[in-house]
Amino acid sequence: MPGASASQYLSSRPAEVLAALGLVSGLVSAWAWVQGFGLEPLRPLARVFLLDPGALPIGFAYGLAMGLGMAACARAWWAAPLVVVTTMYAWSAAIHTAVRLQRNTDDDLYLAAASLAAGAVGAALTHAGCALVAPGLRRPPWRIALTAALGAAFGMLFYLGQRKLIAEWVLFLVWQPAVAFAIGLGLPRGGDGSPSA
Description:
This protein has about 200 residues and is mostly helical. Helix content is about 70%, strand content about 0%.
């Protein structure tokens, strides 16, 4: 795209931009998971999002990626903080969904249900948060269903990680860019009004 500005380029490829940012946040999240930071001083901030301090960097990394991506693709920089906050609450809801469905038992059925539900909840709420700044994500309703279904499918990586069949951090590395890409498919390309897919 010769002569195009960076913002035009970014808004012409929303799915790819969001997927790339999701991959970066997935890498940061995987690294944060492996490092297992002791972030006790952040407990008051973590409480705002109903999270433990150790989960804060992962939610923030993905929220920042989605916020920056939505701001760039929608050409509305005010969108970034709103999407960061809604994505962090989506992350919190996904964690609480998994914990509530799996807490009292460790059998495969409950863990699979927790994995599917947490993936779907996190993806759907992230999509809904992005839809606050991008009306194209609100219609047709199958767009959010597609994002939730993809989130549920990749949420099964939580199951595999809990069963030690894969490293637990793989969830972040795969789920975050996949859900970001699905959300990006509903955004218009370069202001021409047509969705990416």
